[in-house]
Amino acid sequence: MIAPLLATLSTSALADKIVFAIGGTPHSLQGLTAQHFTDLLQERLGDAHQVEYYHSGQIGDERQLLQKLRLGTVNLAGISSIMPTVAPSFALFDLPFLVKDRDHLLRIDKDIVMTDLAQDAEEKGLHLVSTWENGFRQITNSKRAINVPDDLDGLKIRTPQSEWRTLMFKTWGANPTPMAFSEVFVALQTGVVDGQENPLSNIDGAKFQEVQDYLSLSNHVYSPIWLTASAKGWESLPDDVQSAIQESAAETQQWALAKGLELDNELVTTLEDAGMQVNQVDRAAFVESSRPVYEAYAEQVEGGQELIDRALSLAEE
Ligand code: EAX
Prior knowledge:
Elements lengths: L1 H14 L1 E5 L7 H17 L4 E5 L7 H10 L4 E4 L22 H22 L2 E16 L14 E4 L3 H9 L3 E4 L5 H6 L5 E5 H6 L8 E4 L4 E9 H6 L2 H35 L3 E4 L2 H6 L2 H10 L3 H10 L4
Parallel strand pairs: 1-2, 1-3, 5-6, 5-7, 8-10
Antiparallel strand pairs: 3-9, 4-7, 4-8, 4-9
Helix pairs in contact: 2-9, 11-12
Bound molecules: (2R,3R)-2,3,4-trihydroxybutanoic acid.
């Protein structure tokens, strides 16, 4: 009688819960996406496993989530702009104006992310499950409208904790200040920083319009959010759980990109109605001053120039 009882116990102890976390707020696209995924996954897993979902950095900002994945206390996390700290090739998404639109993104995802970049992550002990959308990033600040890079001169702009995003803003003349997303609202409110850069749904999701006057639409980078596991943690999941995660994540990718497009179209009005002054940046001027970032990527990332060329060649298919 004892053997079957032990078998039951060990099965349930193995994977009775899947801990999943993101840094963003519930109302941001990544929050909506994470909830969508949680629901799909829970439906697939049924009663066998409980998906435990945390948002807003409740159990850690993205850097801490990376550590928790490695420690095994978190099974799945959404990791966005700090991915180049894992493997520098991910800074492909810190090359300004590289991603043309979401169709281009999907081609890059299939031909570069899920092959080359996923391999680089695997070598660093992380398993990429899927590429979701954080979104096209825009600049907000409390001082003035940003039209050309010179307008950023001396402005303190919060960036994610990635040297590539700080390099980008330094190149444009700003004074970048990296910090975790959950600290940004207070930093903007108290004037510790003048501005920040994020997709519209993160801006609205965290109510930055309450503490920022100017929204400059730059679309300077497309920032994905990667559903990530530790390589070891992933291997230790039962096959059926892996498949449930993979299938739910793939469905979620489609949902997220469609939702991202919808939100980009509607949130400019929402933010304008909230009192923000909105302008379009001079894209050509920004493209022109972004060259040093491409040069840095080609120099510092192994095979960097080839990745740039391949990504660019996927723009026109
Ligand atoms: O949860 O840190 C950031 O600005 C990123 O956009 C992050 O994904 C927000």
